[in-house]
Design brief:
Length: about 190
């Protein structure tokens, strides 16, 4: 009897811990490529991240960016692009990439997280799976669920099919190179 109660209490505690989740919700080494910059202000790293993203062809989205994050608009990928084609459901589907750089500062070190998502246009598949086919011939969706007075752009569904880790590393390496060149330019000239 006592063992049963203890087992139920232990199970309830484990369920509570499992359902509580993580409170931070930000990027981590599992969700982005990480690089640490000791002794560098996070604002400097963030400015250089925006510059590196622009050098890689991304356009900065000021509305989605914040004090510690630089977000970009989606960039269309050509069918012959060198971006990985992982998880592609349909051969020849349109793809695009979206980049985000996030910077945190702790203990005198700025830590940059870079994530470049590869997205695939899957509007037709989403439309097929979204349709509810009930047992009657009466449509189960409401007029607001249908594509009434909306544009094709608003109805387009993009799904994440992978990450471009090579580009993530290249962006972070470019930030490090910018910092290195700034340090070399700021170094005092040696006497002749």
């Amino acid at each position: 009897m006592i063992h049963t109660k203890l087992a139920w209490i232990a199970a309830a505690c484990l369920m509570g811990l499992a359902s509580s989740g993580c409170a931070t919700g930000g990027p981590s080494a599992l969700t982005a490529t990480v690089h640490r910059f000791p002794g560098v202000e996070s604002s400097v790293v963030l400015d250089l991240a925006a510059l590196a993203l622009a050098e890689h062809g991304f356009e900065i989205d000021r509305q989605r960016s914040s004090a510690d994050t630089v977000a970009t608009y989606p960039m269309e990928l050509s069918p012959h692009s060198d971006a990985p084609a992982v998880g592609s459901a349909f051969r020849g589907a349109r793809r695009r990439s979206v980049a985000t750089a996030h910077v945190r500062r702790s203990a005198g070190t700025a830590t940059a997280y870079c994530r470049v998502e590869i997205q695939e246009r899957s509007t037709d598949a989403a439309r097929f799976h979204a349709a509810e086919h009930g047992l009657t011939d009466v449509p189960s969706d409401t007029p607001i669920d249908r594509e009434g007075a909306t544009t094709e752009e608003q109805n387009t569904v993009w799904r994440v099919v992978g990450r471009d880790k090579r580009r993530e590393r290249a962006i972070l390496e470019m930030i490090a190179a910018f910092l290195m060149s700034e340090a070399e330019n700021d170094a005092p000239a040696s006497p002749p």
